[in-house]
Amino acid sequence: MALKTDTFIFLKDWTKRKSGILLEGKEVMVDCRLAPIADELKKGSVDDLVDSIRLDQDSPLAEKILESLTTNETFWFRDHYPFEILRTKIMPEILEYRKNMKCFRLWCGASSTGQEPYSIAMLLKHHFPHMDSWNVEILATDISDQMVKKATLGKYDQNEINRGLPAVLLAKYFDPDGVNFKLKEEIRKKVTFKTLNLTHAYSLPPDLDLIFIRNVLIYFDAPTKKAILQRAIQSLRVGGFLFLGSAETLYGMDIPLESVIGEKTIYYRKAK
């Protein structure tokens, strides 16, 4: 049964207010994501489910609904080319810049279940093993406390593993865990996961070398995108780098970053 118009309008406005994410035109997605929750709680329909949170929009159930609507898909080494640029171009430059300090700081925003920050951690371990003696700080954040808890565990099922993880890295950095696979401690300890709402005031570690905030800005309106990026780059050091998703751009935002054209990808650098 299709969502009632007033149900969708309520959800759309509530989700925008709570997370900044736009649901315009996504009635089918909303229905598909909330139907399992309605079934689990023996609600008659998604409309009935939503009615139960109208009077208490900060309840645990409301939080569960919000998480289901704001969780986005992710997979290992997504789009491939940003990680190649990171390995061949950016990390050698950062290593030279930081060779005396021997530190490296990265923030991964909207990290979902952790595949992106863990991909970066494996890339560093696999291709730059001498960084084991460095102070490496990878901060990964997501709006969903549930996603943060799952990511911290570093445990993935076969379907999640199959989404982009090279076999050589599976063999080297994962241990079997029943029918699942768990990242080795040497990779998990490189990443710190925290809950963070991009549309709220937040602080990041200073002097970041690199920011990955990919495939999430497409869900916000233009003013919200600009505010998120302006807040983020305050913590990016001069000469530091920013990666967005392949469908995202800084066009029309007047953000003080220079675009760099790499192999089949565009990334950004904080102007000197």
What does the model show?
The chain has 272 residues and is of the alpha/beta class. It folds into two domains: 66 residues, no CATH class; 190 residues, Vaccinia Virus protein VP39 (Rossmann fold, 3-Layer(aba) Sandwich), CATH 3.40.50. The chain is 41% helix and 20% strand. The protein has eleven helices and ten strands. The strands form two sheets. It has a seven-stranded mixed beta sheet with strand order 6-2-1-7-8-10-9. A three-stranded antiparallel beta sheet has the order 3-5-4. A hairpin with a 2-residue loop joins strand 9 and strand 10. The longest helix is centred in the N-terminal third of the chain and has 17 residues. The N and C termini lie far apart (56 Å). 33% of the residues are buried.
Topology:
Layout: H1 5-19, H2 27-40, H3 46-51, H4 60-70, H5 81-97, E1 103-108, H6 115-127, E2 135-142, H7 145-153, E3 155-156, H8 158-161, H9 167-173, E4 174-177, E5 180-183, H10 185-188, E6 191-195, E7 208-212, H11 222-233, E8 236-243, E9 257-262, E10 265-270
Parallel strand pairs: 1-2, 1-7, 2-6, 7-8
Antiparallel strand pairs: 3-5, 4-5, 8-10, 9-10
In brief:
The protein is α/β, with parallel strands linked by helices.
